[in-house]
Amino acid sequence: MKKIATALVAALTLSTLSTLDVMAQAAPAGPTSGVKTDKGDESKWLDANGDPTFKKYDDGSFDWYTFNGFRRYHAECHVCHGPEGNGSTYAPALTDSMKTMSYGDYMAVVASGREVDRPGGQKSVMPALGDNKNVMCYVDDIFVYLRARASGALAGGRPKREVQRSKESQDFETSCMGG
Amino acid sequence: MRKSALTGALLASVSLAVPAMANESVTKLTADPNQWAMQSGDYFNQRYSKLDQINKDNVKNLKVAWTFSTGVLRGHEGGPLVIGNIMYVHTPFPNIVFALDLDQEAKIIWKYEPKQDPSVIPVMCCDTVNRGLAYADGIIILNQADTNVVALDAKSGKELWKVTNGDPKKGETHTATTLIVKDKVLVGISGAEFGVRCHMTAYDLKSGKKVWRGYSMGPDSDILIDPDKTMNLGKPVGKDSSLKTWTGDQWKIGGGSTWGWYSYDSEANLFYYGTGNPSTWNPAQRAGPDGKQIDQKYSMTIFARNPDTGMTAWVYQMTPFDEWDYDGINEMILADIDVKGKKTPALVHFDRNGLGYTLNRKTGELLVAEKYDPVVNWTTGVDMDPKSPKYGRPAVVPAMSTFKEGKGQDVNAKGICPAALGTKDQQPASFSPRTGLFYVPTNHVCMDYEPFKVSYTAGQPYVGATLSMYPAPNSHGGMGNFIAWDAGTGKIVWSKPEPFSVWSGALATAGGVVFYGTLEGYFKAVDEKDGKELFKFKTPSGIIGNAMTYTHKGKQYIAVLSGVGGWAGIGLAAGLTNPNDGLGAVGGYAGLRNYTNLGGTLTVFSLP
Description:
A: 179 residues, Cytochrome Bc1 Complex, Chain D, domain 2, two-stranded antiparallel ribbon
């Protein structure tokens, strides 16, 4: 019962958001701010709207978060949304949806889930993942990974990564995952 | 308190002499090749038919006799049943059942559509498949996705009883068929990827009342183990044999799902099934208190249980401390065959881990364990020396370990064969008493496997690894083979390459023909002797259903469900490490979308 109610609220939120969404989607995917220190450590990269995004270096490698998003996506999301966000017979291709979906919409759908009616009386159900640490602790990582895929910056496969994982991301994982 | 009372009752009933008998109506029906009364054809899981009207000379003339659309788009596993003049067809979620009148050109006699909470859909990790109905004593048993087990009157479709076996909110779901032995319906459960402690449960066929439940792991009284009488490779298992092999309370979210095809030997009065992987896929988080490998019994185990009481007669764990998701759920096929020159009451099992096992089904003695795909590389083989302390254990190749002495977390282990979907997944093999060979649909896929830290929340995925899968390197480029296997010696007799994994159940017949389907949608007939292709027909969608046969008014028919999906269908997208591979290679599942599309259809063939 509780779950249905949450889903409903999410659906309502979404329908309001979707009009805003189109306007909010002008920001280019590439980062305008971010940190790469001399040691190769880094923190999250942000776009002009202040939303998380990927960083692709000149040598074709990616930042830690994009790389980690690849890993977490392929544990939590790919069984429905297909390898590399390509979609499957089960759920839509995120390489398409993420072209137009805002960070706010993404967060709402991931956290609260939603149901969509498909032709032939069939239902698609995105589960509410709000209490799943394996998703929510890495929700930005997965977002930037999918953003890199949707924008074409990451053609597919395992993102190449040259820089070391930052202490910041390690500390965050420890505190968020507990232990 | 409740548990110990239960165990006492069970032990008491063990000592009573129970007449060994399968369900009489099912035994009678399966002895008649004109009907197809069980998903696997018979209690031995042989998927063999004595019908021979369609034979290796005339099979090339097969034509479509009729078709039936299920109206459902998801992956269609399992197959129809035929009892008398009625065919029973099931669908994936929402699990519709149709009764078709074969006397009236498959007119629909009744249709049953359960109401299920759609929130069950996303907790079914690898598609909303259902592996079909079971029948006994005028009752059809439907095993719904949301874990409701429903008994329907076979004549009218009227609901007789309904019982709930689990809770989808915790990630518990049903995909398997059930096995009816005597007056019991044996029901397994899925959910190892959600940290469910899985089990096997018996319900009374007439009333739906729960009779017993045996867990895959935990205290002896939960598993239904007698420490002195339950055997493992010829020795009693001893007290707390499962609890000792887990760190702390991890067994409570231990996995070990039970969604395969069960078999039954009425002479031994034992039924057989396998258990799945331990949760999570990150072995580092399952290490022992000393940081080393620990067995996690009884995940990855062949169970032999008494169907009346649930008591475990014997167990054999194939992959202790799983590091690759090599679920042990695949079917156990029973056959009396020559093993190394000796007539043996055998149990033959093609495990996800790439080893074909032959055991003595009465005693659980291990007789053969050999690779049924030469590319299998995670092990050098199983220790077959009964005197060895490692007797029955596979030797792990260190480079293919994803645990790496506890240092495997965040390390990408590459080139492991087979991939997590196994050298064979659920697609059931068949045994022909004519040739003494097993006909096995297989995968020819390898993987990279990177485990990482994962946290448990009830009802949420509890995976903990990322995998890339690709066609076996340096081979024929395809992702599957259809093979003939000699289980007495552990050798491949012939192997027919397929561009995609063969995800369809095989059927061998007295006509000397073996049937199976492919992911592109071809329904094929091959020669039992050498695998030579004798017939193929492209059905409306990829085939992950199982071939079956029956007669109507004296004429033989062969039927199969098409409707791509399942794990392989989810890979309809891509899944290759190098994105360019997907474009040209025939091998990748990526190519599948160029061959077929969704949609459930039953296709029925006959000679003109």
